[in-house]
Amino acid sequence: MKINAWLVAACVLANTAFAQDYPSRPIRIFQGFAPGGNADNIARVLGAEMSKSLGQPMVVETRAGAGGNLAADLVAKATPDGYSLLLAVGGHPVSGALYKSLPFRPVEDFDWISTATLFPFTISVRSEGGPKSIEELLRAARAKPDAVTFGSAGIGTTQHLAGELLASVTGTKILHIPYKGDAAALTSLLGGEIVFVVAPPTAVLPHVKSGRLQAIAVTSGTRWQGMPDVPTATEAGATGFDVSSWAGLATTAGTPRAVVMRLNADMHKALQVPEVRSRLESFGGEVRGSTPEEMRARVASELARWSKVIREAKIEQQ
Question: Cβ neighbours of residue 232 under 8 Å, at least 6 residues apart?
Fold first, then answer.
């Protein structure tokens, strides 16, 4: 027992000493999507500001592929020292639910640092000929099951699962039509091939401003600041429906707690900088930090939620 106690004390002292010297070299942020996209931009905005208080460069590296899973796997298997971070997004728990097996555990193989932003989606229709409200859309779906079609950025995307969840919580049947990205789904909607899309507000906004499309609801629990007159789906009649994507930072499981909390504190400091908030909001999100425990709970809860949606919608796992 005395030997075990000594080992524990030695580990605590070693971790404390390590944390006091952290960081002593550049930190890498891995993001798993195309350069210039939202994930890449968010990582660069956070890294540039956090490096000021951390005193070391934060270098953003792209490991695109498999819906962000390549970057996640790299960080899950990295040395747990806080020098390899993951720009995690709402698709991370979706992948955990959609894939039969992954080379990492979506929750347990990471130490969660903090969320940075939350992103709603919109439920959008054609301005001419489309339903004018969620209630009208749901009435049509109940009158003719599967006659109401919706498009998304692809099978297993958060947009797809949000549409399936809308059907589930409202007791309706709607038919999903997958596309290769939001732009393709919006093109199909504009051409009258589908009834509505679930898509990010930043993708929809130019078409709303032109008058060709109408956003009849946002999927989040609160209204989006960029479209303050558009009600939430719950306000519009889809009680209990609340879906937001998000972005935040995580690192490898087993990283010293003091290092995780240092990163959390510096991230929250960055999120309070007006220029940082403005840049992040320009990508369509609402700035929202969290504790490590809150972020872990969010990922675990969404993993369970999307697993249930996939089972009930009979979506084939990949």
Answer: 217, 218, 219, 220, 221, 222, 223, 242
